[in-house]
Amino acid sequence: MSYSEPTNTSAMLMISNQVGIPANEIEMNFIRAQGKGGQNVNKVSTAVHLRFNIKTSSLPAIYKERLLKYKDHHITAEGILVIKAQSFRTQDKNKEDARQRLIDIIQKSMLIKKKRRPTKPTRGSQRRRMDSKTKQGKQKTLRRKVEY
Fold first, then answer.
1. Helix and strand numbers, DSSP H then E, in the chain
2. pTM, whole model, 2 decimals?
3. Which of 1, 35, 85, 104 could be joined to 97 by an S-S link, Cβ 3.0–4.6 Å?
């Protein structure tokens, strides 16, 4: 048993200072949560199933492109981002958690990782490494049986 919440068209979910998602683009269904909770689990639909279609959204093209390339198990092959929030016992907290997770995924997809530049070991570190190897070798020769 699940039902959709009527969305407020004037509300915006802000991703950054300039970018926001209109509330009518986010689909939220309330379902029964799994796990502990006693009789409350069987009676009340507190878990939230958030669905956000990336391809048809009003996000800027760069956001859409990066989101679709972003490797995340929440994004389906059709370009729909699905989040299930059931950590809390109340609908409102789960709804807020799902929205926050949506924002986090979008913001993470926009981060550009710094390219790794391989470095060479310094001359001093090479010398220290070789000194420790020769020291270890001398120590091992001293441990051997003494021949007369």
1. 4, 6
2. 0.67
3. 85
Residue ranges and CATH numbers for the domains of the chain are: 3-110 (3.30.160.20)
Q: Quick check: 63 and 106 in contact, CB under 8 A?
A: yes
CB atoms within 10 A of CB 139: 9
Alpha helices in the chain (DSSP H): 39-43, 61-69, 91-110, 123-143
Splitting the chain (148 residues) into consecutive groups of 10 residues, what average pLDDT does each group show? 49 82 86 72 80 87 86 85 87 91 89 90 96 96 87
Which residue's structure tokens are 């689909």?
Answer: 27
**Contacts for 108-114 with beta carbons within 8 Å, 24 or more apart?**
108/70, 109/63, 109/66, 109/67, 109/69, 109/70, 109/72, 110/63, 110/66
What's the burial of 54, exposed, middle or buried (CB within 10 Å: 0-12/13-18/19+)?
Answer: buried
Helix, strand or coil, per DSSP, at residue 52: strand
Report CA-CA distances (Å) from 52 to 49, 57, 76, 95, 102: 10, 8, 10, 14, 9
